[in-house]
Specification:
Elements (H helix, E strand, L loop, with lengths): L15 H13 L5 E2 L11 H12 L12 H15 L8 E4 L3 H11 L5 E6 L3 H10 L2 E6 L10 H5 L6 E7 L11 H11 L6 E5 L25 E6 L12 E4 L2 H14 L5 H12 L3 H22 L14 E2 L10 H12 L1 E2 L1 E2 L11 E4 L4 H15 L1
Parallel strand pairs: 1-10, 3-4, 3-5, 5-6, 6-7
Antiparallel strand pairs: 2-8, 7-8, 9-12, 11-12
The protein binds pyridoxal-5'-phosphate.
Pyridoxal-5'-phosphate binds next to loops.
């Protein structure tokens, strides 16, 4: 018998991948499946970015790079943050990693241990809770509520801080709800954190380029008073349709940069060099492809919300960001998991049960609108008879 470490029992997963596997299995049997389950843009990476990656390979960039990322890439990140959020960031505080996920894993490993408490959104990205449990820390859920537009409530966060709290994870725009936290709540949260100097904040801003209806992203970097204990996570996966390239970064506080760089050296040495050159082209090049993608996402967003609200027993609030709709399906009489399974098996539409994002996602279903408008509307039409 293999002597696996018991810590593995605490490691969770992302069930969107389980749904994807089943959807692919059904498709292989010849079923027509519309995938509204997966959280990645259905667009290709813009051509000039692909070309920059190919050129880097042809130019001989085949070796290790600095563990924290190529200097020109970290400078491009700082310039991008200045452009988008109006903030000054020292490129030395930027650490480039393979995607959005490594930052969250490293942050939780740095602040999580038995006896520590780490707060995370529920419903929220499932990897947060998984890695918190893996670290041995106690996960403390922050409830996100439909009636509050799935925004963070500063009070709900601050009320749960104890002497043991080491890290708080927030995410806006949010997966799976599309919720956007308004500036007033962030102002209140940052003001309240002044009373708790032992707490570090990780702000997952991977969807910071994806807001709708005139909403403007508020970055936690815009609050100088918490820079010395802020980890701001962002990356290329969603904005530039680069999920498979594996490229992300975070801005770390001075005190944490050496620690996270050592984690990078121990884990992956550096991100694939050609990918980093592609990342430079993404940030420094034209942004029209990003703008075009957002026009499509917004159009689909409005279409899916309207169509979902016409389904019996379903109501869907307006998602302000990301590319997810998170309707309340309690009126259908089904649990989230039942609805997910029936809709996949009987209507051939992949969605993800709200409970995949935490227990408080019960009664909700996540629809990703990273698919064509035509497919989205066909999918909802196919679901309708199941609910009538
Ligand atoms: N953070 C959130 C909130 C996400 O939804 C995702 C991906 O779905 C990530 C981070 C991870 O992105 P990546 O694929 O770059 O690791």
């Amino acid at each position: 018998e293999l002597r696996f470490a018991s810590s593995l029992d605490r490691l969770g997963t992302e069930s969107a991948f389980v749904v994807l596997a089943r959807a692919q299995q059904l498709a292989a049997q010849g079923k027509d499946i519309i995938n509204l389950g997966i959280g990645q843009p259905d667009f290709q990476t813009p051509e000039h970015i692909v070309e920059a990656g190919i050129k880097a390979l042809r130019d001989g960039h085949h070796g290790y790079t600095p563990a924290n990322g190529i200097p020109a890439l970290r400078e491009a990140v700082a310039a991008d943050l200045h452009r988008r959020h109006g903030v000054e960031v020292n490129p030395d505080n930027v650490v480039v990693v393979p995607g959005g996920k490594p930052t969250m894993f490293f942050a939780v490993l740095m602040f999580g241990q038995p006896g520590a408490e780490i707060m995370y959104p529920n419903p929220g990205f499932p990897i947060y809770e998984s890695v918190i449990r893996y670290s041995g820390a106690t996960p403390v859920p922050i409830a996100l509520r439909e009636e509050e537009g799935f925004a963070f409530s500063a009070e709900a966060v601050l009320d749960q801080i104890t002497d043991k709290t080491s890290l708080i994870i927030i995410n806006s725009p949010a997966n799976p709800t599309g919720g956007v936290t308004p500036k007033e709540e962030i102002d209140k949260l940052v003001a309240g954190l002044a009373d708790h100097p032992h707490v570090t904040l990780m702000s997952d801003e991977i969807y910071s380029n994806m807001l709708y209806g005139g909403r403007k992203h508020v970055s936690l970097l815009q609050y100088p008073e918490i820079r010395d204990r802020l980890i701001m996570l962002d990356g290329w996966s969603k904005t530039y349709a680069m999920t498979g390239w594996r490229l992300g970064y975070a801005v770390w506080p001075d005190a944490a940069v050496d620690h996270v760089t050592r984690l990078c050296i121990n884990d992956h040495s550096c991100v694939n060099a050609a990918t980093q050159y592609a990342g430079i082209a993404a940030l420094n090049g034209p942004q029209d492809a990003v703008d075009d993608m957002m026009v499509h996402f917004d159009d689909r967003r409005q279409a899916i919300v309207q169509a979902l609200n016409e389904l019996p027993g379903v109501r869907c609030s307006d998602p302000g960001g990301a590319f997810y709709a998170f309707p309340n399906i309690k009126g259908t009489g089904m649990t989230s998991k039942q609805a997910q399974d029936r809709i996949l098996e009987e209507a051939g539409v992949a969605t993800v049960a709200g409970t995949s994002f935490g227990a408080w996602g019960e009664g909700f279903l996540r629809f990703s609108y990273a698919n064509s408008k035509e497919n989205i509307l066909t999918a909802i039409d196919r679901i309708k008879p199941l609910l009538s």
